[in-house]
Design a protein that fits this description.
11 helices; 7-stranded mixed beta sheet; two-stranded antiparallel sheet; Helicase, Ruva Protein, domain 3; 37% helix; single chain; 11 strands; alpha/beta; Rossmann fold
Length: 278
């Protein structure tokens, strides 16, 4: 058995983590059902034998590289506690940039929005938390991801979000949307980073795309034109080196006002365009 302080001092064992101390804080908060502030208020609190054994198991899995979000089964996004599992991507902080851009460009209280490849439902549910009057549809190809997004929606109580199984637009009929958003797969199939960090534990289908990571973005830009209302907006998240290429895809597909917004590190992350229906 060990105290909270002694367990936190084992952060040195997480040599491959970018935030070893925070990782252990999150794991201890998860086990103890306490806040991070509590950990520092009661550093001499001793874990009983059962909790210490659980901590050792979680630490061993984290040392092996398993994401903290998978160990705890949850990840906060836009201040929303989302359930996560191996069926889809773990929400990243940079994706909040996409949410911020949508909210800045769309102050109206009524509109129809489509979230393509919703995964945990992070983007759709973040927007739903800010805009209770919006009609939001979230789709994903994978049944397990659909079930996860539905569970997160139900737990948060956002009944103005519909979650459907759909391979991009395949399950949609003739509905038109004022805004379409997506965080699609955009990593090149040969990217060496696929063998590093958390992505090793996430489904490749949610990460990689052909054509140097641009195939799905190209398809979305082309097909979204059928489903966008007049002057509708399309916004996609992409890799930080793909801004120029994505702007070219949008322009070639006939979008106007094409621009790219930066993430919190000042890198190109979200490209948007407006489709003025002929």
């Amino acid at each position: 058995m060990a105290t909270v302080k002694e367990n936190l001092q084992r952060a040195t064992e997480l040599q491959h983590s970018d935030s070893p101390r925070l990782d252990l804080e999150v794991l201890l908060c998860h086990l103890l059902g306490k806040s991070r502030a509590w950990l520092y208020t009661w550093p001499e609190h001793q874990l009983d034998a059962g909790l210490q054994a659980q901590f050792e198991q979680l630490l061993e899995r984290r040392i092996a590289g398993e994401p903290v979000a998978h160990l705890t089964g949850s990840r906060e996004f836009w201040s929303l506690p989302l359930k996560v599992n191996r069926s889809t991507l773990i929400p990243r902080p940079d994706t909040e940039v996409l949410v911020e851009v949508v909210l800045a460009l769309c102050p109206q209280e009524k509109l129809a929005l489509l979230d393509l490849g919703t995964g945990t439902g992070a983007i759709a549910l973040a927007l739903a938390s800010e805009k209770p009057g919006w009609s939001i549809t979230a789709v994903d190809k994978m049944p397990a991801a659909v079930a996860l997004a539905q569970e997160n929606r139900d737990r948060l109580g956002f009944d103005h979000v519909s979650v459907l199984q759909s391979d991009w637009f395949s399950a949609l009929d003739t509905q038109r949307f004022d805004v379409i958003v997506s965080n699609p797969p955009y990593i090149d199939t040969q990217d060496p980073h696929l063998r590093e960090g958390d992505v090793r534990f996430e489904p490749r289908s949610a990460l990689v795309a052909e054509e140097q990571g641009l195939a799905d973005i190209r398809r979305i830009a082309a097909d979204a034109r059928t489903f966008l209302a007049a002057n509708g907006l399309l916004l996609v998240e992409h890799g930080w080196e793909q801004g120029k290429a994505v702007r070219g895809i949008f322009t070639e597909a006939g979008y106007d006002e094409v621009e790219t917004r930066l993430d919190y590190a000042g890198r190109e992350r979200v490209t948007l365009g407006r489709y003025r229906r002929p």
